[in-house]
Amino acid sequence: MSFSCSAESKRISVCRNSEEVLIYRFGTPQKIELELESDIHFSRTAYSGGGEGNLTFQNGDYSYVVYSSISNGDWLEDSTREKIERAGVYVVEGDKLLADIECQSDSGMPFIHDLPAFEEQEFRYYE
Q1: Distance between CA atoms of 102 and 106, rounded to whole angstroms?
Q2: Per-residue pLDDT tens digits for 2-25
Q3: Cα(first)–Cα(last) distance of the chain, in Å?
Q4: Residue 95 φ then ψ, to 5°
Q5: CA separation (Å) from 99 to 39, 107, 114?
Q6: For 121, which DSSP code?
Q7: What is the maximum alpha-carbon separation in the chain?
Q8: How far apart are CA 45 and CA 120, in angstroms?
Q9: pLDDT per residue as tens, the chain (127 positions)
Q10: What DSSP character marks residue 103?
Q11: How far is the CA of 42 from the CAs of 6, 38, 79, 112, in angstroms?
């Protein structure tokens, strides 16, 4: 399992430490500002023409929710639909969304994939 993208001058990444433990990192290659280990807390929902997957990492009252999604956009001239892809991390305190740090570019895997076996969590929308 791996997820990695750039958000401004920082990197967001998730990798697998063991079969059941994931590591979330945020920062630069020179300085990791936050590193959290967690069991797999994954949720997902379907959208028209796509869906969203979330991995949640808890740190006291704060949650760091790594997300990746794809959905339909506008109709194109060739009668197909534009695909809108988003990824990043939601920073949440209690029930309040503090920040949506969206990925701007990726050099690795910008979508959540290849998770080992886990029990799926209930999906929550963040606005």
Answers
A1: 11
A2: 788 898 889 999 988 877 789 999
A3: 27
A4: -110, 5
A5: 23, 23, 27
A6: P
A7: 49
A8: 11
A9: 678 889 888 999 998 887 778 999 999 989 999 999 998 888 888 887 888 889 999 999 999 999 988 888 899 999 999 888 889 999 999 989 999 999 987 555 556 766 665 778 888 888 7
A10: -
A11: 22, 11, 34, 10
Q: Map tokens 């209690």 to a residue.
A: 94
* Interatomic CA distance for residues 36 and 104, integer angstroms: 22
Please tell me the total number of residues recorded for the chain in this structure: 127
Within 8 A by CB and 6+ apart from 49, the residues are 70, 71, 72, 81, 83
Query: Counting beta carbons within 10 angstroms of the beta carbon of residue 71, is it exposed (0 to 12), middle (13 to 18) or buried (19 or more)?
Result: middle
- Our CA angle for 111, 75, 100, nearest 5°, is 35
What's CA 30's distance to the chain center, in Å?
22
Q: Which of 17, 11, 99, 24 is nearest to 59 (CA)?
A: 24
Q: Which residues contact 56 (CB under 8 A, 6 or more apart)?
A: 38, 41, 42, 43, 63, 64, 65, 66, 121
